[in-house]
């Protein structure tokens, strides 16, 4: 048998089954032909000399007869069908796929766990199915399935217990086959008694083969079965009547009038459209001020509500692309109508809004709205008459005999064309649009997306600053210590004798008798040398001189620094 032919047949068996299931008798013959080729390959696998090697697999305290390994099967398929030469990409995956197709059609099954009919390239054990249970030799029957379930229910429930879906199937079959349930029970008892006379190994192999057969033909809910039959399709040609022929003629005429555009022109049009709208694409250029889905800041949604007093610049620029973009925005419609009222040509936009309300309104109000729109915009001497030609008005009057949501479609198309060619270009050139663009909002980008711990850090810094003021911030023009020193001169002299042991509570402030000139750039050691030694516990705070010189400062404020009393002795200063 040609290996290439077998490879092509088996690799497309799913396609054949899905295509041929449910067809007539000639299609069933093709399915049988496909199964014949698959079974011929399985027979070659079972050849004792050139087939897949079978051996007795020894496991813990048990011996499994007539089993083969999964990777032996995959290797045999690759050698027999020359998959490595015919498939350049992933030949191993192709061989595993073919093995899965054979397993799902019931030609071999896994030993032990029959719930999964998947082949893996590992050391899993599999066993060939008996030819009696092949799909082309035996067809499933409800009576046989009922006998199988009844046999298992009468055996050891811990070892041969039925699953939930099998219990439901048994109860359903008992109701369906109630007229011959005694015969089914008798057959089940006879088969159980015959199985007891067989050897244990043969009995286990037969039970596993029967269980695998019903796993393929009666799979659990949610599983895919390659042999499941679909309902027969009704392929009888329906005879066409006069209405069908008229509808077909109308469709053919419409297809003739449909414009034909070349593919290159379509691609060019798509590219131009993308380039035109790329500025407004949030996935490409981002959004301002920030993305609400990232920063949890809803400013973007607030600025782009359906109706706002001041639109954003990006929103106003979008109105200039096309009239459709303008009419899709409620704020754009409001501004467009405001401009047209100044030009005394707002009847077109009012008619457009009325027709849109008719299309989206309730069904019970359609007839009333149709007559109201006609009386307001299209009737002779209408208060807000729309400029339409006679043919369009006749078309509308004919459609009003059966009022619907689409009665004014012809008039709406004419009005839309007038706005697109006349009023819309004038709106874009008007001072009203320029003012909108000039006064539009320009949201700034927010760079901080996450602000975890910022408030805590600020509080910690401010608290530290209150506890330990920096002397450099008290000098110069940032703090006016002159006013503070003069105000403290008016206090009681007795307060100078009190002091606190905290440097943040200083009471004695005085003005020294002489000014000591010092440079701002002088080192701390030189500044300490210029401090008078009369009162070593007085701190001189420099400040700017009234002359305003940048390089000269005066020590105009003296702060009393608390000192330790001489009588106080720390415990660690004493000896012994």
Automatic annotation (TrEMBL):
Disordered, as annotated region: 489-558
Keywords: Signal transduction inhibitor
Biased composition (Low complexity): 518-528
GO MF entries: GTPase activator activity
Domain (RGS): residue spans on this chain: 322-437
GO biological process, one term: intracellular signal transduction
UniProt keyword Cell membrane, yes or no: no
A Pfam entry, by short name: DEP
SUPFAM superfamilies: Regulator of G-protein signaling, RGS (SSF48097), Transducin (heterotrimeric G protein), gamma chain (SSF48670), Winged helix' DNA-binding domain (SSF46785)
GO cellular component: cytoplasm; neuron projection; plasma membrane
InterPro entries tied to this protein: DEP_dom (IPR000591), G-protein_gamma-like_dom (IPR015898), GGL_sf (IPR036284), RGS (IPR016137), RGS6/7/9/11 (IPR047016), RGS6/7/9/11_DHEX_sf (IPR047017), RGS_DHEX (IPR040759), RGS_sf (IPR036305)
Domain DEP: 48-130
Top-level taxon in the UniProt lineage: Eukaryota
Descriptive protein name: Regulator of G-protein signaling 7
Species for this entry: Caerostris darwini
């Amino acid at each position: 048998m040609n290996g290439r032919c077998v490879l092509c047949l088996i690799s497309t068996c799913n396609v054949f089954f899905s295509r041929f299931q449910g067809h007539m008798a000639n299609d069933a013959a093709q399915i049988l032909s496909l199964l014949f080729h698959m079974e011929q390959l399985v027979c070659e696998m079972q050849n004792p000399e050139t087939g897949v090697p079978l051996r007795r697999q020894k496991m813990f305290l048990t011996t499994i007869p007539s089993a083969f390994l999964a990777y032996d099967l995959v290797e045999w398929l690759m050698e027999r069908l020359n998959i490595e030469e015919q498939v350049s990409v992933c030949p191993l995956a192709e061989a595993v796929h073919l093995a899965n197709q054979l397993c799902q059609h019931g030609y071999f099954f896994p030993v032990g766990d029959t719930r999964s009919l998947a082949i893996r390239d590992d050391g899993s054990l599999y066993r060939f199915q008996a030819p009696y249970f092949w799909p082309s030799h035996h067809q499933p029957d409800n009576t046989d399935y009922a006998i199988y379930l009844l046999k298992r229910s009468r055996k050891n429930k811990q070892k041969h217990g039925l699953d939930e879906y099998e219990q439901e199937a048994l109860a359903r079959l008992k109701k369906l086959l109630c007229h011959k349930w005694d015969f089914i029970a008798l057959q089940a008892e006879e088969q159980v008694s015959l199985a007891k006379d067989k050897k244990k190994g043969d009995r286990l192999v037969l039970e596993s083969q029967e269980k695998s057969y019903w796993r393929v033909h009666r799979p659990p809910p949610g599983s895919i079965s390659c042999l499941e039959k679909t309902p027969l399709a009704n392929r009888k040609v329906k005879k066409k009547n006069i209405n069908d022929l008229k509808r077909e003629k109308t469709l053919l005429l419409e297809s003739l009038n449909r414009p034909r555009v070349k593919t290159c022109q379509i691609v060019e049009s798509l590219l131009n459209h993308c380039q035109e709208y790329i500025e407004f694409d949030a996935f490409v250029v981002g959004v301002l001020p920030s993305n609400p889905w990232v920063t949890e800041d809803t400013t973007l949604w607030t600025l782009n509500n359906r109706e706002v007093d001041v639109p954003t610049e990006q929103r106003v620029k979008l109105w200039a692309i096309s009239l459709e973009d303008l009419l899709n925005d409620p704020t754009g419609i409001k501004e467009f109508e405001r401009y047209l009222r100044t030009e005394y040509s707002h009847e077109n936009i009012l008619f457009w809004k009325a027709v849109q309300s008719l299309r989206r309104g309730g069904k019970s109000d359609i007839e009333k709205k149709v007559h109201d729109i006609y009386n307001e915009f299209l009737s002779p001497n209408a208060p807000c008459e729309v400029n339409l030609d006679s043919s369009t008005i006749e078309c509308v009057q004919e459609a009003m005999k059966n009022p619907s949501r689409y009665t004014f479609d012809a008039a709406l198309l004419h009005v839309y064309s007038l706005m697109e060619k006349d009023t819309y270009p004038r709106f874009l050139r008007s001072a009203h649009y320029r003012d909108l663009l000039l006064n539009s909002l320009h949201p700034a980008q927010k760079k901080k997306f996450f602000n975890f711990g910022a408030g805590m850090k600020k509080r910690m810094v401010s608290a530290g600053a209150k506890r330990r003021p920096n002397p450099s911030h008290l000098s110069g023009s940032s703090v006016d210590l002159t006013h503070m020193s003069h105000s403290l001169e008016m206090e009681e002299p007795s307060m100078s004798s009190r002091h606190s042991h905290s440097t943040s509570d200083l009471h004695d402030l005085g003005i020294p008798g002489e000014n000591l000139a010092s440079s701002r750039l002088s080192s701390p050691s030189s500044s300490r040398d210029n401090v008078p030694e009369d009162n070593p516990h007085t701190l001189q705070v420099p400040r700017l001189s009234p002359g305003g010189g940048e390089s000269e400062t005066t020590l105009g404020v003296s702060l009393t620094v608390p000192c330790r009393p001489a009588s106080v002795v720390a415990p660690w200063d004493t000896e012994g």
